[in-house]
Amino acid sequence: MSDYRSERRIRNNRIRRQKEMRKNFLLTVMTICLVFTFSFSVNSFLSNAKAESSPVAYKYYKSITISNGETLWSIAKDNMDDEHYDSVNDYIKEVKQVNSLKSDTISYGANIIVPYYSYEVVE
Q1: 91 by DSSP, 3-state: which?
Q2: 3-class secondary structure, 85
Q3: Which residue has the higher pLDDT, 113 or 50?
Q4: What is the DSSP letter of 69?
Q5: What is the DSSP letter of 21?
Q6: How far apart are CA 56 and CA 103, in angstroms?
Q7: Confidence category of residue 19, pLDDT binned at 50, 70, 90
Q8: Cα distances (angstroms) measured from residue 123 to each of 20, 58, 60, 88
Q9: Range list of β-strands (E), the chain
Q10: CA angle 11, 17, 21 (to 5 degrees)
Q11: pLDDT, tens digit, for every residue of 62-78?
Q12: How far apart are CA 10 and CA 18, in angstroms?
């Protein structure tokens, strides 16, 4: 009888150790996953931060008087910022919209409002 109890105790101890080892293994795997997830999250958060902030361009409007021989095209060439407009036609469309112009015709001596961009704050 004693051999039976001894074998049973040994078997129970082995099962208990196996369960404990499984539990410890799962805890270790979960901890590694958690650490990996946390470090990935922190890394992605930090990588989105910018080391240097890029300069901000502010959009302003100014009034100009049309000189002799000036066209919307020549005004666009003088005042348009390539960084903020895809084409001269886009700039001309905005000038026409701001000034409620129906056509491309402008008159000598007339005043029109044109947009421009500056990296400085104008007060």
Answers
A1: helix
A2: coil
A3: 113
A4: T
A5: H
A6: 33
A7: very high
A8: 72, 12, 11, 28
A9: 58-65, 111-118
A10: 145
A11: 999 999 999 999 999 98
A12: 12
Do residues 54 and 119 touch, judged by C-beta distance below 8 A? no
Q: Is 107 helix (H, G, I), strand (E, B) or coil?
A: coil
| The two three-digit tokens of residue 75, written as one number | 């005004």
DSSP H or E run through 17: helix 2-48
Contact 85, 57 (CB under 8 A): no
Query: Which two tokens mark 59?
Result: 């959009």
Return the SS3 of 72: helix
Q: State the DSSP H helix or E strand holding residue 108, giving kind and residue range, or none if neither.
A: none
- Helix (H, G, I), strand (E, B), or coil: what is residue 105? coil
* Averaged pLDDT, 18-42: 90
Pairwise CA distance, residues 91 & 65, whole Å? 18
CA distance 43 to 95: 45
